[in-house]
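[09:14] KT: can someone run the structure on this one? pasting the chain below
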Amino acid sequence: MKLDEFNSLDNDERLSCLLGCCNCLGWAGRLAKCAPFSDLESLLREAALIWEAAGEEEILEAFSGHPQIGDLEALRNRYAERAHAEQGQVLSAPDETLAELKDMNEAYLERHGFIFIVCASGKSAGEMLEMVKARLPNSRAAELANGSREQGAIMTLRLKQLIEE
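[09:31] RB: done, C-alpha cells below
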C-alpha cells in the first residue's frame, strides 16, 4: 500500500497492519497514533525510536509472533507465506542441518527462556546455525538485547514491504 493509504486508515486498521510487522501491541499502538507520516523514512525512524524504548515484556511479546528458525511445521502452517519468504532458504537445507538447527533452537529456548530471533532474510540455514551456536553461550540479558536488535531489523524489513514507495 502507498503511504497516503496507510495514513488514511483508521487507527484500528493501521494498528492491524503494524501488528503484522511486529507482534507487540504497545509498539504498534504507539506508532499507529503517530500518523500521518510525511514519508517512509519518518515512519521507519519513529518505529525504531518506539522500539528502542520497549521493555522486556514488549520485546518478548514481539518474539512470540515468530516461529522458531527451522520449525518446518510452523513454516507450513501458521506463518506459511511470510515465514517462507523470510526463512525460505531453511526449507532447502539438508536434513542434518535442519535437525541440528532444531536441536540448537531448543537448547537456546531452554537456556534463555525465549526463542532465537534473527533477521533470517538472505541467510542460509547453515549461517543461522552458526549464529545460534555463537549466541547460545551469551547471558540472557545479552540475548534479549541481540534479539531486540534483530526484531528491529525484521520490523524495518516488514514496514518497507508494507509501504510501497
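[09:33] KT: thanks! Residues 75 and 83 are 6 Å apart (CA to CA).
[09:34] RB: yep, looked fine to me
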